Amino acid sequence: MISLAIGNSFGQSADNPLPKLIEKDGRHALLVDGKPFLILGGQAHNSSAWPGMLPQLWSAVEMMHLNTLEVPVYWEQIEAEHGKFDFSLVDTLLAQAREHKVHLVLLWFATWKNGSNHYMPEWMKRNAVKYPNITGKNGQPIDSPSPHIKATLDADITAFKQVMRHLKQADPQHTVIMIQVENETGSWGSVRDYSPVAQKLFDGAVPAGLLKPTVLKALNVPVVTSGSWQKVFGDRADEYFQAWSTARFVGQVADAGKAEYPLPLYVNAALRDPLTNPTANNYESGGPTDNVIPIWKVAAPAIDLLAPDIYLPGSERVYGLNKDFKSPDDIDDVIYFGGDYIGVRIGKTVKFYKTNRQGTWSYSSGKDLAIPDDVDGIFYFNRNSVGVYQGRTIKFYQTNKEGTWTYSPGRDFSSPDHIDGAFYLNNGFIGVRNGRTVKFYTTNELGKWTYQDGIDFTSPGDADNLFYLNTGSIGVLKGRTIKFYIINEKRSWSYVNGSDFNF
User: Fold this and answer.
1) Does the N terminus or the C terminus of the chain have fewer Cβ atoms within 10 A?
2) Per-residue confidence at 86, pLDDT binned at 50, 70, 90?
3) Segments of 16-171 assigned E as strands
4) Bridge pairing between strands 333-336 and 305-309
5) Tens digit of each residue's pLDDT (9 = 90 or more) over 237-267
6) What is the pLDDT of residues 33-49, one digit of tens each?
7) Residues 90, 92, 98, 102: is their CA dihedral positive or negative?
8) For residue 437, with 0-12 CB atoms within 10 Å meaning exposed, 13-18 middle and 19 or more buried, which class applies?
9) For residues 370 and 410, what is the distance between their CA atoms, to the nearest angstrom?
10) Is 244 within 8 Å of 207 (Cβ atoms)?
11) Are 270 and 285 in contact (CB under 8 A)?
12) Which of the pair, 26 or 163, is modelled with greater confidence?
């Protein structure tokens, strides 16, 4: 969250307006006490909100100079006995946060915590008939709550309404500025619930809200006006059904809580790989992952924002999904140049643009690479270097801190075949493509190139382009589909089934 100003906005007056999220001209801000507020936050460990742990927690907050602490509150503690609510832990957090002049973001650990119901009250866990978990495809029990059970939904709504009602009364100075509803919703071990209750819903019609053309196009499926989940969504039907069911559950909890006390509410997502489009048996199915955000927007309108839990390396792969780049000129070639930079080739000139986490692109003036010769393509090499290929030859150019480019003599690479594409791998390796085949070469500090025999990659079909993805992986683009191949310890290539990406 980017704010317009940073200041001491720890309010102490009951007359202060509620925290809220605003949008203006495509930019968003969190307002606290009526002023833009930048969260400098840290998150407590799952079970660190108990009174005995708090002294260590506040020491860490002070050491890190935080202005906000994300901390869980536990349904199993708040409603240990059915219908009786204990807010002593919430009150302790409020009092100590005010003492340390720190705001709070509360995490509602309730029906879901990392895909399971482990923070659900014991009286619910002991009544699995009334509050059942998911049933797997083969009838096996799954350690994840079913999103289709009205009794579970009603109990969660009742408890969350009590929490919000208590905060409205006990926190007039708005120590709590935001709340996360549930935690990492979805299921591990089964893409969806296959119980009779769930199966009846799955066999029924897709809700009208999901059949809007804008939603279906966002989900990359044909526009239709009716149909079952299987008919409308094909091989993604199970996951999309689970996403809709989970989002509807969470959305109703959030909506009921906002009716009591309209603080900003959000959900978090355990991420999947956003580039290879894996199937849902490889991640937490039903949570607000990148591919089902359109479903969540329809099903849970009371949710204000989505927060990714980034356990995967390479966070730029995640936030990069939402930052389209539009060049003022026709583009002949594009390269990723490290950090937040891309290079855009227009004829013999490469211009560099930098982005931020809000997806705003800015031209880096004074850093243009002017290529003196005709060029077929460019690629990122390493250490501020660009490779430029034409015909059978690759030349290398290097830049310095001032953005001045110089040709690197003595490093030219001459291919025995015409070069249709090239990419840098690592440790001096480059892949050189001719037609459907990529050959690999290594170079040393003296500029000597050596062909690496025995690891050629040949696409099994025609390809529009081949590119390097990450260590040991190649993507093959044909039309609107990318297929992925990986090299194994025996130095042979194999297709990664189930990882196709379709534009």
Assistant:
1) C
2) very high
3) 20-24, 27-32, 35-36, 41-43, 68-74, 103-113, 133-135, 141-145
4) unpaired
5) 999 999 999 999 999 999 999 999 999 999 9
6) 999 999 999 999 888 88
7) negative
8) middle
9) 19
10) yes
11) no
12) 163
Q: Which helix (H) or strand (E) holds 168?
A: helix 150-170
Instruction: Give mean pLDDT, residues 8-34.
Output: 78
The contacts of residue 341 (CB under 8 Å, 6+ apart) are: 352, 353, 354, 364
Q: With contact defined as beta carbons under 8 Å apart, do 415 and 434 qualify?
A: yes
Distances (CA, A) of 159 to 163, 201, 297, 500: 6, 26, 24, 42
pLDDT digit string (tens) for 189-236? 999 999 999 999 999 999 999 999 999 999 989 999 999 999 999 999
Q: Is the pLDDT of residue 318 over 80?
A: no
**66-70, 178-182, 383-387, 444-448: segment of lowest average pLDDT:** 444-448
Q: What is the pLDDT of residue 8?
A: 40
Report which of 377, 369, 484, 490 is spatially closest to residue 424, judged by C-alpha positions. Answer: 377
The answer to whether residues 425 and 381 touch, using CB atoms and an 8 Å cutoff, is no
Choose among 433, 432, 409: nearest CA to 396. Answer: 409
Instruction: Tell me what percent of the chain is helix, strand and coil, each rounded to the nearest 5.
Output: 25, 30, 45
Q: If you write DSSP's letter for every residue of 41-79 in order, what string do you get?
A: EEE--TT--SGGGHHHHHHHHHHHT-SEEEEEEEHHHHT
Residue 187, helix vs strand vs coil: strand
Question: Are 240 and 295 contacting, i.e. CB atoms less than 8 angstroms apart?
Answer: yes
SS3 294: helix
